[in-house]
Specification:
Number of strands: 11
Helix content: 55-70%
Strand content: 5-15%
Largest sheet: 7 strands, mixed
Distance between the termini: 30 Å
Protein backbone atom coordinates (compact mmCIF):
# COMPACT_ATOMS: atom_id res chain seq x y z
CA UNK A 1 0.00 0.00 0.00
CA UNK A 2 1.50 3.33 -1.10
CA UNK A 3 1.88 6.29 1.29
CA UNK A 4 -0.55 8.41 -0.78
CA UNK A 5 -3.19 5.69 -0.55
CA UNK A 6 -2.71 5.40 3.22
CA UNK A 7 -3.04 9.18 3.59
CA UNK A 8 -6.19 9.02 1.45
CA UNK A 9 -7.74 6.48 3.87
CA UNK A 10 -6.81 8.69 6.85
CA UNK A 11 -8.51 11.70 5.22
CA UNK A 12 -11.64 9.67 4.42
CA UNK A 13 -11.78 8.48 8.04
CA UNK A 14 -11.43 12.07 9.30
CA UNK A 15 -14.29 13.24 7.04
CA UNK A 16 -16.48 10.32 8.15
CA UNK A 17 -15.85 11.28 11.77
CA UNK A 18 -17.05 14.85 11.12
CA UNK A 19 -20.07 13.48 9.25
CA UNK A 20 -21.05 11.10 12.08
CA UNK A 21 -20.81 13.77 14.77
CA UNK A 22 -22.71 16.27 12.60
CA UNK A 23 -25.55 13.80 12.09
CA UNK A 24 -25.71 12.43 15.67
CA UNK A 25 -24.22 13.42 19.00
CA UNK A 26 -21.62 10.73 19.71
CA UNK A 27 -21.52 9.83 23.46
CA UNK A 28 -18.14 10.07 25.20
CA UNK A 29 -18.15 6.35 26.00
CA UNK A 30 -18.12 5.53 22.29
CA UNK A 31 -15.17 7.86 21.75
CA UNK A 32 -13.18 6.02 24.41
CA UNK A 33 -14.20 2.70 22.83
CA UNK A 34 -13.05 3.85 19.38
CA UNK A 35 -9.81 5.13 20.87
CA UNK A 36 -9.14 1.81 22.58
CA UNK A 37 -9.87 -0.17 19.39
CA UNK A 38 -7.61 2.12 17.35
CA UNK A 39 -4.65 1.79 19.74
CA UNK A 40 -5.17 -1.99 19.96
CA UNK A 41 -5.10 -2.37 16.17
CA UNK A 42 -1.93 -0.26 15.94
CA UNK A 43 -0.03 -2.43 18.42
CA UNK A 44 -1.23 -5.83 17.11
CA UNK A 45 1.41 -5.96 14.32
CA UNK A 46 4.10 -5.96 17.04
CA UNK A 47 2.62 -9.22 18.35
CA UNK A 48 1.95 -10.92 15.00
CA UNK A 49 3.82 -10.73 11.72
CA UNK A 50 2.52 -9.77 8.26
CA UNK A 51 -0.62 -8.00 9.43
CA UNK A 52 0.52 -4.36 9.05
CA UNK A 53 -2.84 -3.64 7.45
CA UNK A 54 -4.23 -3.73 11.00
CA UNK A 55 -1.99 -0.80 11.95
CA UNK A 56 -3.39 1.23 9.04
CA UNK A 57 -6.92 0.33 10.16
CA UNK A 58 -6.01 1.41 13.70
CA UNK A 59 -4.81 4.82 12.53
CA UNK A 60 -7.99 5.15 10.44
CA UNK A 61 -10.03 4.67 13.62
CA UNK A 62 -7.91 7.33 15.37
CA UNK A 63 -8.49 9.77 12.50
CA UNK A 64 -12.21 9.05 12.73
CA UNK A 65 -12.02 10.00 16.43
CA UNK A 66 -10.12 13.18 15.45
CA UNK A 67 -12.94 14.09 13.05
CA UNK A 68 -15.53 13.62 15.80
CA UNK A 69 -13.48 15.71 18.24
CA UNK A 70 -12.90 18.49 15.67
CA UNK A 71 -16.63 18.80 15.09
CA UNK A 72 -17.31 18.79 18.84
CA UNK A 73 -14.81 21.65 19.29
CA UNK A 74 -16.67 23.65 16.63
CA UNK A 75 -20.00 23.01 18.37
CA UNK A 76 -18.48 23.93 21.76
CA UNK A 77 -17.34 27.26 20.28
CA UNK A 78 -20.90 27.95 19.07
CA UNK A 79 -22.45 27.11 22.43
CA UNK A 80 -20.02 29.36 24.32
CA UNK A 81 -20.06 32.36 21.99
CA UNK A 82 -20.29 35.49 24.17
CA UNK A 83 -22.54 37.48 21.85
CA UNK A 84 -24.95 34.60 21.24
CA UNK A 85 -25.91 34.58 24.95
CA UNK A 86 -27.62 37.97 24.47
CA UNK A 87 -29.90 36.75 21.65
CA UNK A 88 -33.64 37.44 22.07
CA UNK A 89 -33.15 39.29 25.38
CA UNK A 90 -33.98 42.88 24.58
CA UNK A 91 -32.12 45.91 23.28
CA UNK A 92 -28.33 46.06 23.46
CA UNK A 93 -25.64 48.58 22.50
CA UNK A 94 -22.64 47.18 20.61
CA UNK A 95 -19.44 48.76 19.31
CA UNK A 96 -17.47 47.01 16.63
CA UNK A 97 -15.72 47.04 13.28
CA UNK A 98 -17.07 46.16 9.83
CA UNK A 99 -14.96 43.15 8.90
CA UNK A 100 -16.00 42.52 5.29
CA UNK A 101 -17.41 44.25 2.25
CA UNK A 102 -21.05 45.28 2.88
CA UNK A 103 -23.66 43.36 0.89
CA UNK A 104 -25.57 46.22 -0.79
CA UNK A 105 -29.08 45.58 -2.16
CA UNK A 106 -31.73 47.86 -3.70
CA UNK A 107 -33.33 49.05 -0.44
CA UNK A 108 -30.98 47.84 2.29
CA UNK A 109 -27.47 46.60 3.04
CA UNK A 110 -26.04 43.88 5.27
CA UNK A 111 -22.93 44.61 7.30
CA UNK A 112 -20.89 42.08 9.23
CA UNK A 113 -19.62 43.63 12.47
CA UNK A 114 -17.05 42.15 14.84
CA UNK A 115 -18.00 43.43 18.29
CA UNK A 116 -15.65 44.33 21.14
CA UNK A 117 -17.69 43.64 24.29
CA UNK A 118 -19.26 41.12 24.31
CA UNK A 119 -17.03 39.58 21.66
CA UNK A 120 -18.62 38.01 18.60
CA UNK A 121 -19.85 38.68 15.07
CA UNK A 122 -23.29 40.09 14.23
CA UNK A 123 -24.89 40.42 10.80
CA UNK A 124 -26.90 43.65 10.80
CA UNK A 125 -29.47 44.56 8.15
CA UNK A 126 -29.49 48.37 7.88
CA UNK A 127 -30.86 51.04 5.55
CA UNK A 128 -29.48 51.55 2.07
CA UNK A 129 -27.90 54.86 3.08
CA UNK A 130 -25.47 55.92 4.40
CA UNK A 131 -23.15 53.33 2.88
CA UNK A 132 -20.62 51.71 5.18
CA UNK A 133 -17.18 50.47 4.27
CA UNK A 134 -14.70 47.84 5.32
CA UNK A 135 -13.05 48.64 8.70
CA UNK A 136 -15.57 51.36 9.62
CA UNK A 137 -16.03 51.51 13.40
CA UNK A 138 -19.73 51.68 14.27
CA UNK A 139 -22.05 51.79 17.26
CA UNK A 140 -25.23 49.75 16.79
CA UNK A 141 -28.26 49.77 19.04
CA UNK A 142 -30.95 47.15 18.62
CA UNK A 143 -32.19 43.69 19.49
CA UNK A 144 -30.00 40.65 18.89
CA UNK A 145 -31.94 37.75 17.39
CA UNK A 146 -31.23 34.11 16.61
CA UNK A 147 -31.42 33.50 12.83
CA UNK A 148 -34.60 31.67 11.91
CA UNK A 149 -35.80 29.28 9.21
CA UNK A 150 -38.08 30.84 6.63
CA UNK A 151 -39.62 29.51 3.43
CA UNK A 152 -37.97 26.12 3.97
CA UNK A 153 -34.53 27.78 4.12
CA UNK A 154 -32.57 27.29 7.35
CA UNK A 155 -30.93 30.71 7.68
CA UNK A 156 -29.38 29.77 11.02
CA UNK A 157 -27.41 26.85 9.58
CA UNK A 158 -26.45 28.95 6.55
CA UNK A 159 -24.77 31.54 8.81
CA UNK A 160 -23.23 29.00 11.20
CA UNK A 161 -20.46 28.07 8.77
CA UNK A 162 -19.28 31.71 8.70
CA UNK A 163 -19.19 32.03 12.48
CA UNK A 164 -22.33 34.18 12.69
CA UNK A 165 -24.82 33.24 15.42
CA UNK A 166 -26.64 36.58 15.88
CA UNK A 167 -28.47 38.98 13.57
CA UNK A 168 -30.00 42.44 13.93
CA UNK A 169 -32.88 43.84 11.86
CA UNK A 170 -32.58 47.58 11.15
CA UNK A 171 -30.85 48.72 14.36
CA UNK A 172 -29.79 52.30 14.98
CA UNK A 173 -26.28 52.73 13.56
CA UNK A 174 -23.78 55.49 14.31
CA UNK A 175 -20.47 55.83 12.49
CA UNK A 176 -17.73 56.38 15.08
CA UNK A 177 -14.88 56.69 12.58
CA UNK A 178 -13.75 55.46 9.20
CA UNK A 179 -11.19 52.85 10.03
CA UNK A 180 -7.82 52.55 8.38
CA UNK A 181 -6.02 49.26 7.77
CA UNK A 182 -3.22 48.54 10.21
CA UNK A 183 -2.11 45.05 9.23
CA UNK A 184 -0.62 44.12 5.85
CA UNK A 185 -3.47 41.76 4.97
CA UNK A 186 -6.01 44.48 5.78
CA UNK A 187 -4.21 46.89 3.42
CA UNK A 188 -4.19 44.28 0.65
CA UNK A 189 -7.88 43.48 1.16
CA UNK A 190 -8.74 47.20 1.16
CA UNK A 191 -6.95 47.65 -2.18
CA UNK A 192 -8.83 44.66 -3.60
CA UNK A 193 -12.19 46.11 -2.51
CA UNK A 194 -11.20 49.50 -3.97
CA UNK A 195 -10.41 47.85 -7.31
CA UNK A 196 -13.69 45.95 -7.14
CA UNK A 197 -15.68 49.15 -6.53
CA UNK A 198 -13.96 50.93 -9.43
CA UNK A 199 -14.61 47.91 -11.66
CA UNK A 200 -18.29 47.96 -10.63
CA UNK A 201 -18.52 51.65 -11.58
CA UNK A 202 -16.82 50.95 -14.92
CA UNK A 203 -19.32 48.17 -15.71
CA UNK A 204 -22.29 50.40 -14.89
CA UNK A 205 -20.95 53.15 -17.17
CA UNK A 206 -20.61 50.82 -20.16
CA UNK A 207 -23.66 48.56 -19.73
CA UNK A 208 -27.35 48.98 -18.99
CA UNK A 209 -29.49 46.57 -16.91
CA UNK A 210 -29.86 43.62 -17.11
CA UNK A 211 -26.49 43.37 -18.88
CA UNK A 212 -24.70 45.30 -16.13
CA UNK A 213 -26.15 43.14 -13.34
CA UNK A 214 -25.28 39.92 -15.21
CA UNK A 215 -21.71 41.09 -15.76
CA UNK A 216 -21.37 42.20 -12.13
CA UNK A 217 -22.46 38.75 -11.03
CA UNK A 218 -20.22 36.90 -13.48
CA UNK A 219 -17.11 39.05 -13.02
CA UNK A 220 -17.42 40.40 -9.48
CA UNK A 221 -19.68 37.83 -7.81
CA UNK A 222 -22.27 40.50 -6.90
CA UNK A 223 -25.93 39.44 -6.91
CA UNK A 224 -27.39 42.54 -5.25
CA UNK A 225 -28.25 44.27 -8.54
CA UNK A 226 -30.15 41.28 -9.98
CA UNK A 227 -33.89 41.83 -10.32
CA UNK A 228 -36.22 39.19 -8.87
CA UNK A 229 -37.53 38.41 -12.36
CA UNK A 230 -34.01 37.71 -13.62
CA UNK A 231 -33.26 35.55 -10.55
CA UNK A 232 -36.39 33.48 -11.22
CA UNK A 233 -35.42 33.00 -14.87
CA UNK A 234 -31.88 31.96 -13.90
CA UNK A 235 -33.30 29.42 -11.42
CA UNK A 236 -35.67 27.99 -14.04
CA UNK A 237 -32.90 27.62 -16.63
CA UNK A 238 -30.36 26.25 -14.13
CA UNK A 239 -27.91 29.08 -14.83
CA UNK A 240 -27.91 30.76 -11.41
CA UNK A 241 -24.50 29.28 -10.61
CA UNK A 242 -22.94 31.35 -13.42
CA UNK A 243 -24.06 34.65 -11.84
CA UNK A 244 -22.21 33.84 -8.62
CA UNK A 245 -18.85 32.76 -7.30
CA UNK A 246 -20.06 29.20 -6.81
CA UNK A 247 -18.09 26.00 -6.50
CA UNK A 248 -19.80 24.45 -9.52
CA UNK A 249 -19.09 27.55 -11.62
CA UNK A 250 -15.38 27.62 -10.69
CA UNK A 251 -14.93 23.88 -11.25
CA UNK A 252 -16.64 23.86 -14.66
CA UNK A 253 -14.77 27.00 -15.69
CA UNK A 254 -11.46 25.44 -14.60
CA UNK A 255 -12.14 22.31 -16.65
CA UNK A 256 -13.10 24.25 -19.79
CA UNK A 257 -10.15 26.64 -19.40
CA UNK A 258 -7.67 23.77 -18.99
CA UNK A 259 -9.09 21.98 -22.03
CA UNK A 260 -9.09 25.14 -24.15
CA UNK A 261 -5.46 25.97 -23.36
CA UNK A 262 -4.36 22.42 -24.18
CA UNK A 263 -6.38 22.63 -27.42
CA UNK A 264 -4.55 25.87 -28.31
CA UNK A 265 -1.23 24.02 -28.11
CA UNK A 266 0.00 24.45 -24.54
CA UNK A 267 1.44 21.54 -22.61
CA UNK A 268 -0.60 20.27 -19.70
CA UNK A 269 1.85 21.78 -17.20
CA UNK A 270 1.75 25.20 -18.90
CA UNK A 271 -2.06 25.11 -19.12
CA UNK A 272 -2.17 24.29 -15.40
CA UNK A 273 -0.16 27.37 -14.39
CA UNK A 274 -2.07 29.74 -16.70
CA UNK A 275 -5.38 28.38 -15.37
CA UNK A 276 -4.27 28.79 -11.74
CA UNK A 277 -3.26 32.41 -12.42
CA UNK A 278 -6.60 33.15 -14.08
CA UNK A 279 -8.67 31.58 -11.28
CA UNK A 280 -6.59 33.41 -8.66
CA UNK A 281 -7.16 36.78 -10.35
CA UNK A 282 -10.86 35.99 -10.58
CA UNK A 283 -11.15 35.21 -6.87
CA UNK A 284 -9.20 38.37 -5.98
CA UNK A 285 -11.41 40.54 -8.20
CA UNK A 286 -14.55 39.19 -6.51
CA UNK A 287 -13.28 40.53 -3.19
CA UNK A 288 -11.98 37.22 -1.82
CA UNK A 289 -15.28 36.27 -0.20
CA UNK A 290 -15.15 33.13 1.94
CA UNK A 291 -17.35 31.22 -0.52
CA UNK A 292 -15.21 32.41 -3.43
CA UNK A 293 -11.97 31.39 -1.75
CA UNK A 294 -13.39 27.92 -0.96
CA UNK A 295 -14.56 27.55 -4.55
CA UNK A 296 -11.16 28.70 -5.82
CA UNK A 297 -9.31 26.22 -3.60
CA UNK A 298 -11.45 23.35 -4.85
CA UNK A 299 -11.07 24.51 -8.46
CA UNK A 300 -7.31 24.80 -8.00
CA UNK A 301 -7.03 21.29 -6.63
CA UNK A 302 -9.12 20.02 -9.54
CA UNK A 303 -6.59 21.63 -11.91
CA UNK A 304 -3.82 19.88 -9.96
CA UNK A 305 -5.68 16.60 -10.38
CA UNK A 306 -5.85 17.30 -14.13
CA UNK A 307 -2.12 18.02 -14.18
CA UNK A 308 -1.37 14.71 -12.45
CA UNK A 309 -3.36 13.00 -15.20
CA UNK A 310 -4.33 9.92 -13.17
CA UNK A 311 -7.88 9.34 -12.02
CA UNK A 312 -6.88 7.67 -8.75
CA UNK A 313 -4.38 10.39 -7.86
CA UNK A 314 -6.91 13.07 -8.78
CA UNK A 315 -9.55 11.72 -6.43
CA UNK A 316 -7.01 11.41 -3.62
CA UNK A 317 -5.89 15.03 -4.06
CA UNK A 318 -9.50 16.27 -3.92
CA UNK A 319 -10.35 14.22 -0.81
CA UNK A 320 -7.19 15.44 0.93
CA UNK A 321 -8.05 19.04 0.02
CA UNK A 322 -11.56 18.55 1.39
CA UNK A 323 -10.17 17.10 4.63
CA UNK A 324 -7.83 20.07 5.11
CA UNK A 325 -10.68 22.55 4.53
CA UNK A 326 -12.88 20.65 6.99
CA UNK A 327 -10.08 20.64 9.56
CA UNK A 328 -10.24 24.46 9.52
CA UNK A 329 -14.05 24.57 9.42
CA UNK A 330 -15.92 21.26 9.95
CA UNK A 331 -19.30 23.02 9.61
CA UNK A 332 -18.76 23.22 5.83
CA UNK A 333 -19.65 19.54 5.44
CA UNK A 334 -23.29 19.88 6.52
CA UNK A 335 -24.08 23.58 6.22
CA UNK A 336 -22.22 24.84 3.13
CA UNK A 337 -24.06 23.75 -0.02
CA UNK A 338 -21.39 25.46 -2.13
CA UNK A 339 -18.70 23.23 -0.61
CA UNK A 340 -20.84 20.15 -1.25
CA UNK A 341 -21.52 21.17 -4.85
CA UNK A 342 -17.89 21.95 -5.68
CA UNK A 343 -16.71 18.67 -4.12
CA UNK A 344 -19.30 16.63 -6.04
CA UNK A 345 -18.72 18.55 -9.27
CA UNK A 346 -15.00 17.73 -9.08
CA UNK A 347 -15.71 14.04 -8.45
CA UNK A 348 -18.10 14.09 -11.41
CA UNK A 349 -15.39 15.54 -13.66
CA UNK A 350 -12.80 13.02 -12.46
CA UNK A 351 -14.93 9.86 -12.68
CA UNK A 352 -17.81 10.61 -15.05
CA UNK A 353 -16.52 13.17 -17.55
CA UNK A 354 -13.98 10.84 -19.26
CA UNK A 355 -16.73 8.23 -19.75
CA UNK A 356 -19.14 10.73 -21.30
CA UNK A 357 -16.37 12.13 -23.49
CA UNK A 358 -15.46 8.68 -24.83
CA UNK A 359 -19.11 7.87 -25.56
CA UNK A 360 -19.50 11.18 -27.43
CA UNK A 361 -16.27 10.56 -29.37
CA UNK A 362 -17.53 7.12 -30.38
CA UNK A 363 -20.83 8.65 -31.46
CA UNK A 364 -19.07 11.37 -33.46
CA UNK A 365 -16.87 8.81 -35.19
CA UNK A 366 -19.87 6.61 -35.98
CA UNK A 367 -21.77 9.53 -37.54
CA UNK A 368 -18.69 10.67 -39.48
CA UNK A 369 -18.15 7.17 -40.83
CA UNK A 370 -21.79 6.99 -41.95
CA UNK A 371 -21.54 10.38 -43.67
CA UNK A 372 -18.20 9.65 -45.36
CA UNK A 373 -17.98 5.87 -45.79
CA UNK A 374 -15.42 5.97 -48.63
CA UNK A 375 -11.70 6.80 -48.47
CA UNK A 376 -11.66 7.33 -44.74
CA UNK A 377 -9.10 5.30 -42.85
CA UNK A 378 -9.06 4.82 -39.10
CA UNK A 379 -6.27 7.38 -38.66
CA UNK A 380 -8.06 9.99 -40.75
CA UNK A 381 -11.32 9.23 -38.94
CA UNK A 382 -9.69 9.80 -35.57
CA UNK A 383 -8.08 13.07 -36.74
CA UNK A 384 -11.37 14.43 -38.06
CA UNK A 385 -13.15 13.56 -34.82
CA UNK A 386 -10.45 15.27 -32.75
CA UNK A 387 -11.24 18.54 -34.49
CA UNK A 388 -14.43 18.54 -32.42
CA UNK A 389 -12.71 17.40 -29.24
CA UNK A 390 -12.83 20.81 -27.53
CA UNK A 391 -16.57 21.09 -28.18
CA UNK A 392 -17.06 17.54 -26.93
CA UNK A 393 -15.07 18.43 -23.77
CA UNK A 394 -17.39 21.36 -23.02
CA UNK A 395 -20.45 19.12 -23.44
CA UNK A 396 -19.02 16.25 -21.37
CA UNK A 397 -17.78 18.61 -18.64
CA UNK A 398 -21.18 20.26 -18.36
CA UNK A 399 -23.10 16.99 -18.25
CA UNK A 400 -20.74 15.37 -15.72
CA UNK A 401 -20.89 18.29 -13.28
CA UNK A 402 -24.65 18.72 -13.71
CA UNK A 403 -25.44 15.04 -13.18
CA UNK A 404 -23.23 14.68 -10.10
CA UNK A 405 -24.60 17.83 -8.44
CA UNK A 406 -28.28 17.40 -9.38
CA UNK A 407 -29.29 15.15 -6.42
CA UNK A 408 -27.81 17.53 -3.84
CA UNK A 409 -29.45 20.49 -5.61
CA UNK A 410 -32.84 18.77 -5.53
CA UNK A 411 -32.37 17.81 -1.87
CA UNK A 412 -31.40 21.32 -0.74
CA UNK A 413 -33.55 23.51 -2.99
CA UNK A 414 -36.46 21.23 -3.86
CA UNK A 415 -36.56 21.89 -7.60
CA UNK A 416 -35.17 20.40 -10.76
CA UNK A 417 -34.63 22.19 -14.05
CA UNK A 418 -35.35 20.02 -17.09
CA UNK A 419 -33.55 22.42 -19.42
CA UNK A 420 -30.43 22.95 -17.28
CA UNK A 421 -28.14 20.59 -19.28
CA UNK A 422 -29.19 22.25 -22.56
CA UNK A 423 -28.86 25.83 -21.32
CA UNK A 424 -25.48 25.15 -19.73
CA UNK A 425 -24.17 23.63 -22.96
CA UNK A 426 -25.42 26.67 -24.88
CA UNK A 427 -24.04 29.25 -22.45
CA UNK A 428 -20.85 27.83 -20.92
CA UNK A 429 -18.76 28.09 -24.14
CA UNK A 430 -19.18 31.88 -24.11
CA UNK A 431 -18.74 32.34 -20.34
CA UNK A 432 -14.94 32.07 -20.58
CA UNK A 433 -14.79 34.77 -23.28
CA UNK A 434 -17.38 36.88 -21.48
CA UNK A 435 -15.20 36.80 -18.37
CA UNK A 436 -12.02 37.63 -20.31
CA UNK A 437 -13.50 40.63 -22.13
CA UNK A 438 -15.60 41.66 -19.13
CA UNK A 439 -12.53 41.57 -16.88
CA UNK A 440 -10.46 43.62 -19.36
CA UNK A 441 -13.31 46.09 -19.94
CA UNK A 442 -13.97 46.66 -16.25
CA UNK A 443 -10.29 47.01 -15.28
CA UNK A 444 -9.24 49.11 -18.29
CA UNK A 445 -12.34 51.26 -17.83
CA UNK A 446 -11.08 52.29 -14.39
CA UNK A 447 -8.00 53.83 -16.05
CA UNK A 448 -9.12 54.85 -19.55
CA UNK A 449 -12.89 55.07 -19.91
CA UNK A 450 -12.83 55.10 -23.72
CA UNK A 451 -10.56 52.04 -23.89
CA UNK A 452 -12.87 50.18 -21.51
CA UNK A 453 -15.82 51.05 -23.77
CA UNK A 454 -14.00 49.71 -26.85
CA UNK A 455 -13.14 46.40 -25.16
CA UNK A 456 -16.73 46.09 -23.90
CA UNK A 457 -18.10 45.67 -27.45
CA UNK A 458 -17.68 41.85 -27.60
CA UNK A 459 -19.38 41.62 -24.18
CA UNK A 460 -22.54 43.18 -25.62
CA UNK A 461 -22.76 40.32 -28.14
CA UNK A 462 -22.16 37.62 -25.52
CA UNK A 463 -24.60 39.21 -23.06
CA UNK A 464 -27.30 39.57 -25.74
CA UNK A 465 -26.92 35.85 -26.53
CA UNK A 466 -26.96 34.97 -22.81
CA UNK A 467 -30.18 36.90 -22.16
CA UNK A 468 -31.86 35.38 -25.24
CA UNK A 469 -31.10 31.85 -24.04
CA UNK A 470 -32.57 32.73 -20.63
CA UNK A 471 -35.71 34.24 -22.16
CA UNK A 472 -36.32 31.32 -24.52
CA UNK A 473 -35.90 28.54 -21.95
CA UNK A 474 -37.39 30.18 -18.83
CA UNK A 475 -40.80 28.61 -19.31
CA UNK A 476 -43.08 27.33 -16.50
CA UNK A 477 -42.83 23.74 -17.74
CA UNK A 478 -39.01 23.85 -17.56
CA UNK A 479 -38.85 23.44 -13.78
CA UNK A 480 -40.45 21.05 -11.32
CA UNK A 481 -40.77 21.78 -7.61
CA UNK A 482 -40.31 18.78 -5.31
CA UNK A 483 -41.18 19.03 -1.63
CA UNK A 484 -39.89 17.06 1.38
CA UNK A 485 -37.08 15.22 -0.39
CA UNK A 486 -35.80 12.44 1.87
CA UNK A 487 -32.13 11.88 2.62
CA UNK A 488 -32.76 8.24 1.66
CA UNK A 489 -33.51 9.40 -1.89
CA UNK A 490 -30.25 11.38 -1.84
CA UNK A 491 -28.23 8.38 -0.68
CA UNK A 492 -29.92 6.12 -3.27
CA UNK A 493 -29.16 8.63 -6.05
CA UNK A 494 -25.43 8.64 -5.36
CA UNK A 495 -25.32 4.87 -4.92
CA UNK A 496 -26.92 4.58 -8.36
CA UNK A 497 -24.44 7.04 -9.85
CA UNK A 498 -21.58 5.05 -8.33
CA UNK A 499 -22.97 1.84 -9.83
CA UNK A 500 -23.33 3.46 -13.28
CA UNK A 501 -19.75 4.77 -13.22
CA UNK A 502 -18.41 1.37 -12.13
CA UNK A 503 -20.43 -0.41 -14.82
CA UNK A 504 -19.34 1.95 -17.62
CA UNK A 505 -15.69 1.65 -16.57
CA UNK A 506 -15.90 -2.09 -17.25
CA UNK A 507 -17.48 -1.78 -20.69
CA UNK A 508 -15.66 -1.70 -24.01
CA UNK A 509 -17.52 1.43 -25.08
CA UNK A 510 -15.54 3.64 -22.70
CA UNK A 511 -12.03 2.69 -23.82
CA UNK A 512 -9.60 5.60 -24.21
CA UNK A 513 -8.82 7.23 -27.56
Amino acid sequence: MTPSKILFYFCISFIIGIFINSAINVPQIFLWAFLFIGVLLIFLPFLFRHINILAVAGFCVLFLVLGILRNEIAEFKIENDELRKFNDKGEIILIGEVISEPDIRDTFQKIKVKTENPKGVVLATVGRYPEYRYLDKVKITGKLETPQEFGGFNYKNYLLKDGIYSVMAFPKVELINSGRPTFAWQKIYSKILFLKQKSRESIRRNFLPPYSSILEGTILGDNGALSQDLKDKLNITGLRHIIAVSGTHIVILSAILMSLLIYLGLWRGQAFYFSIIFISFYIILTGMSSSGVRAGIMGGFYLLAQKLGRQSMGSRVIVMAGAVMLAFNPLLLFYDVGFQLSFLAVLGLIYFEPLIKNILLLGAQFLYKKAFPIKVGDRQLLWETNKFKNTITIVSTTFAAQIFTMPIMVYNFGNISFVSPITNILVLPIVYWLMIFGFLSSVLGTIFQFLGWIVSMPCWIFLFYFVKVIDIFSQPWAIKNIENVSWLWLAASYLLLGFIVRFLNKTEITRKY
